Amino acid sequence: AYVKGQVRIHRSGKTEGGVGLIRLNRPKALNALCDDLFKDLVHAGQALDSDDDIGCLVLTGSTKAFAAGADISEMKDRTFDHAYKTNMFAWWGQFTKLSKPVIAAVNGFCLGGGCEVAMMCDIVIAGEKARFGQPEINLGVIPGGGGTQRLIRAIGKSKAMYMCLTGDMMGAEDMERAGLVAKIFPPDDLVDEAVKMGTKIASKGRISVMMCKEAINVSQEVSLEEGLRFERRMFHALFATADQKEGMEAFLEKREPNFTHK
Ligand code: CAA
């Protein structure tokens, strides 16, 4: 219902708990991110993000692959002037503009552009056998969807350099230790666990969830002083919401809050 006329994302839809689920579905190419697939992804993300019933999104792939990178056959014959003039892959950044949290649920290969998309999400959880990598160096290029910039922020310089310069893959446990992965689950439970986590987030006050995501993301862009100021202003603003009154009243009355997202 969300992705009209586009075939490569399926089972997109919402759960009772207010979670929007997007599943990359291009199995023959291990979910390689051709332009059409990425257009579908952005379209599905925007549709779910603007749905009032939804409080959190989950993005997943298959058991074998979250996504094996940008589509190499589509890219191979592109020229410098085309890549430069069209600002190739800049538009992928649209996926980072969603206002509700996105959980990446990663099973299998999560490589190149796939790893970059996972890092565009707000929380990454992984199946025990997930494999992360930035293998672009093996193709004579470098990451082009944020790999050199987001990976260093997630796991630090030495590990980011190691992954980008050798093209070696890292397993789920290593990536959890390094800080990119928040939690690990058995592969078969991963999507259920992601939806469970999403349901918990969706049960909170929507405005505070959106502001929290916005404030954390601002920390990547500005100085500590500016970030602290931004956080405080968001915090102050939440005192204008019904959810703040309800949340604090419910705590003092020792009951569950009934958030109305206002
Ligand atoms: N682009 C296009 N096709 C891809 C692909 C990709 N990134 N990754 C896999 N495929 C295709 C394969 O060509 C193959 O197609 P055919 O069946 O038609 O031959 C199919 O998916 C299955 O792949 P394999 O047979 O290779 O499967 P495997 O299990 O032996 O290996 C793998 C799996 C290790 C992930 C291997 O497929 C691989 O190394 N893929 C490429 C990974 C990569 O280099 N990604 C970076 C891309 S560049 C990028 O992402 C740029 C950027 O930063 C934006």
Automatic annotation (TrEMBL):
Catalytic activity, EC: 4.2.1.17
Family matches, as SUPFAM superfamilies: ClpP/crotonase (SSF52096)
GO molecular function: enoyl-CoA hydratase activity
Pfam families with a match to the protein in the record: ECH_1
Keywords: Fatty acid metabolism, Lipid metabolism, Lyase
Enzyme class: lyase
Record's GO cellular component terms: mitochondrion
CDD domains the record matches: crotonase-like
A GO BP entry: fatty acid beta-oxidation
Family: Belongs to the enoyl-CoA hydratase/isomerase family.
Protein name, as recorded: Probable enoyl-CoA hydratase, mitochondrial
Lineage, uppermost ranks: Eukaryota, Sar, Stramenopiles, Ochrophyta, Bacillariophyta
